[in-house]
Amino acid sequence: EVQLVESGGGLVPPGGSLKLSCVISGAALSGSSMNWARQAPGKGLEWLAGMYSNGESLVADSVKGRFTATRDNAKNTVYLQMNSLKPEDTAVYYCAGFDARGQGTQVTVSS
Question: Contact 71/78 with Cβ under 8 angstroms?
Answer without folding.
Answer: yes
